[in-house]
């Protein structure tokens, strides 16, 4: 079996960012802090999957969860410095997609 020449850190980063919906969640949070319901309604992500992805991103230090002691208690999610460092990368992917990915036909 051949040994991979890919840097382990790169492989780990791609594993984290390559999970379904992760890029979209980070992209949404680039606009600023959002509550769970706002993230759920602005995407097509189910609540369970969104919760799992947010937990993964929080565990990896990309997203922070801020509890606001209000009545009722509010929870907001925002990007950490580590998460904000992904912004230029996601912007470039967005630019690439505009140039190279065909727009889906809504009638399909």
Verbal overview:
The chain has helices spanning about 10-15, 20-30, 35-40, 45-60, 80-85, 85-100, and strands at about 35, 65-70, 75-80. With about 110 residues, the protein is α+β, with helices and mostly antiparallel strands. Strands 1-3-2 form a three-stranded antiparallel sheet. A hairpin with a 5-residue loop joins strand 2 and strand 3 (about 75-80). The longest helix has 14 residues, at about 85-100. It is globular. It starts with 7 loop residues before the first helix and ends in an 8-residue tail after the last helix. The mean pLDDT is about 90.
How would you sum up the global shape? globular
CATH class: Mainly Alpha
CATH topology value: Arc Repressor Mutant, subunit A
Cα end-to-end separation: 43 Å
CATH architecture: Orthogonal Bundle
Structural class: alpha+beta
Strand order of the largest sheet: 1-3-2
- How many separate helices? 6
Largest sheet: 3 strands, antiparallel
CATH level 4 superfamily: Winged helix-like DNA-binding domain superfamily/Winged helix DNA-binding domain
Q: How large, in whole angstroms, is the Cα Rg?
A: 16 Å
Number of extended strands: 3
Proportion of strand residues:
5-15%
Q: Which spans of ≥5 residues are poorly predicted at pLDDT below 50?
A: none
Helix content: 40-55%
Mean pLDDT: 90
H/E topology pattern: HHEHHEEHH
Count the domains: 1
GO molecular function: DNA binding
Domain HTH hxlR-type: 7-105
Protein name: Transcriptional regulator
Organism: Metabacillus mangrovi
């Amino acid at each position: 079996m051949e040994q991979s020449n890919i840097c382990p850190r790169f492989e780990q980063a791609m594993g984290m960012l390559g999970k379904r919906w992760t890029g979209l969640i980070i992209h949404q949070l680039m606009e600023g802090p959002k509550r769970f319901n706002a993230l759920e309604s602005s995407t097509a992500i189910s609540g369970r999957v969104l919760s799992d992805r947010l937990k993964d991103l929080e565990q990896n230090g990309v997203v922070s969860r801020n509890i606001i002691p209000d009545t009722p208690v509010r929870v907001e999610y925002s990007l950490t410095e580590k998460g904000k460092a992904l912004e230029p990368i996601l912007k470039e992917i967005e630019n690439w997609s505009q140039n190279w990915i065909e727009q889906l036909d809504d009638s399909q």
